[in-house]
Amino acid sequence: MEPKTAQNEKFFIVLRGKSRKGFCRGCIGRVEAETQRGELMGLLYGSGSSGSPKNGGIVRREDTYPLSRHQAQLLLFVTSASKRLELLCNPQLFSAICELSQDDLVVVKHKKGHLPGLVKNLMQIGRKENKDDLHMLGFEVEFVDSDHSLSTKKPAPLPLFSAADIVQVVPSYSVPLGLHWRDGKCGGLNRKAVTRINSMPHISSHARQVRENHTEQSVTQNQCLSTSHVSLEVGSMVEVVSNSGITVYGVIRWLGVPGGKAAEWAGIELDFEVKGCSDGTYGGQRYFTCKESRALFVPITKCSPDSRFVCLSTEGETLKPTETPPVPPFDDSEEDAPPVPESEALSLLVGRMKGIQGHINSCYLDATLFSLFSSSVTLDSICQIPADTEKPITCTLRTIVNRLRRQGFVPAESVMNFRKQLGCDTFRTDEKDPEEFITVLFQKVLCLEPLLKLRSKSETSQGAYTFQIFLEKEQMGPMPTVQQLLETSCLSGDLKFETMPSCLIVQMPRFGNKYKMFSHIIPSTELDVTDLLYNSPRECFVCGCLAEYECLQCLSDHKLQPGRIKQYCTTCNKQVHAHPLRQGHSPSSLPVAADVAAEAPVPRHTMQLFAVLCIQTSHYVSFVKYGPDPRSWLFFDSMADRCGDDQSGYNIPEIRACPELGDFLCQSEEDLARSNPSQAPELVRRLLCDSYLCLYQSTATPL
């Protein structure tokens, strides 16, 4: 029995930040005290499997994630720090693992592949020799034979699995019995009840449900699984049997109660067109967007997990290699394909096995290529290099772009061929940052001059392909826009764009998946760079006349629209800085062309957002705007799912229509600042939390 003080214990895991006084990313600790500066002082349990604390340490609260004692014990048995964080980033699965009960059906990673089994015991690992020690927790799992009866072979010690070894959880068919707590050292038994789980998390396509060998038994038990025990959700792959006995397959895109109905229904995007189906509308209302004749709406009780993706092995049989689906032949003898027009984007691009297929850490490259070339008109000219001047790698890139624009799908083999030609072996296998790939792409592959020419205070000019935001967190509010970040960064570093960029790639103030300065960032759909252009006329912030002065200290003034650049004419500069609180400011003079009239209107220079790359736990995805309509947004993931195991399977890329993103971004700046990201739709939330690169284009200035 645990001491009463255990109820008051607080545990945490370090998510990010530099190693400081003992703590590093992925470490688990117990809070001992909290400093006035919001730092946590605690005991360190380390990144290994030891249940004994090491030296104490200090870590910032914002760099940690709180854990219950039970969660800390489960994660402590996961020896890899990266695996701990990966599991934590799948909250639905981790929650289900934390609430497992005896005889719950799980699918675990095994040397033979993904295998089903029944949880038999929750094991306490390690001896608790002092009060600060923490038992690690693992699961004893009994594998299930192909006929779904327990093996009658000679009993053997049950294998032990950590929480990270469990890839799927299915509630058991039996009455809750609670888990056996058994000391791994002594073998003593103590009963301890564990709360049962109520739903199955959606984990790709591996081992959807147990498949029965006998037909009658299969129908009965599969129906039981689908209606009583498996909680389907948006993204689940399902099958529906029609009244005529025909089975159709698809992915759930919407769940809810449609108008005129009382029970929960599912909106399913089918694999193929079916007569009588819609494009995502039902009863005159749109619930999601897909190709015409592919949206089916049925009661959720009519849906069952897709039986085609059962990957469970039978006794004495290992998983067979999964063959990649056939890829349509591609003839690149035609002329270059233009960017996908808005009217054709949904029919060509939306669906599974669409976009660029991921393979071996290629998501950074897949998301970047899709963002740059699927629909952008600004970058289209770089694919029109004369054939007699092309290098082999440029020809390979041209083929990828044309294939994407004509067929809507690029197989992994084509991208791997391109990766091999990039000149460095690490591009074939390693994870890379998109900005590193962008520099190589533009500089070495396409031989383009830097997209940006930046002029500093010292009047020196330098080229760059991306713009990294640098600023102090205190200069911004809790949820800044890209417009505010760019202006503050330029003004703080005294940087200006020497010429109007045709393409501007802005890198958010974060470092990969390890650290981000702001929990949420709003990508500005329109970027006004008028006040960031060197030697360009600017208007007074107050009266609108020709500006002659600029003031850095006024940037954060709460009485003068904080976060926006402030420049003034001579008269307004004197009046604004006559205020006692601004008399210490040091406005700097702006160069003004002699032929510009003081009352002449200043033309605005704007750029349009056309793509956003996002990162979450080392995985990159992208949002792309495919047309002028505000709701014309796509979400692309080159590794959205996987068929087969790690050795013999393949990734399934997916593109989804995302009109809800356009609805959110179309709000006024004031409404966006007041919005609650936690209440936004799933993909909108992901954009706000995980944005890494924002890509802007100037349609008036071709590349």
UniProtKB/TrEMBL annotation:
Its EC number is 3.4.19.12. Pfam families: CAP_GLY (PF01302), UCH (PF00443). Transmembrane segments: none annotated. GO terms for biological process: protein deubiquitination; proteolysis. Its main location: cytoplasm. It catalyses: Thiol-dependent hydrolysis of ester, thioester, amide, peptide and isopeptide bonds formed by the C-terminal Gly of ubiquitin (a 76-residue protein attached to proteins as an intracellular targeting signal). GO terms for cellular component: centrosome; perinuclear region of cytoplasm. One of its GO terms (molecular function) is cysteine-type deubiquitinase activity. Residues 256-299 form the CAP-Gly domain. The keyword Hydrolase applies. It is found in: Cytoplasm, Cytoskeleton, Microtubule organizing center, Centrosome; Cytoplasm, Perinuclear region. Keywords: Cytoplasm, Hydrolase, Metal-binding, Phosphoprotein, Protease, Thiol protease, Ubl conjugation pathway, Zinc. Residues 354-699 form the USP domain. SUPFAM superfamilies: Cap-Gly domain, Cysteine proteinases. Residues 319-338 are annotated as: Disordered. The keyword Zinc applies. Belongs to the peptidase C19 family. PANTHER family: 40S RIBOSOMAL PROTEIN S3A. This is ubiquitinyl hydrolase 1. The gene is cyld2.
